[in-house]
Amino acid sequence: PYIRSDIPIFVVFRALGLVSDRDILQHIVYDFNDTAMLDALRPSIEEAIPIQSQEVALDFIGKRGS
To answer: What mean pLDDT value characterizes the chain?
Structure first.
């Protein structure tokens, strides 16, 4: 299926089963002192705040597909 709108990367990781922000960051960011990378991810983190489970993330993605 095709996705009609952008999906925050944190929502994608939650759909894959990684729920905590820290777990997701450990898969994306190699150095937690890399403030540029953390700042780049901040909008995705903020967009994913209401989506705190795998089930909700899958539903979020499903509603954007055709």
So the answer is: 93
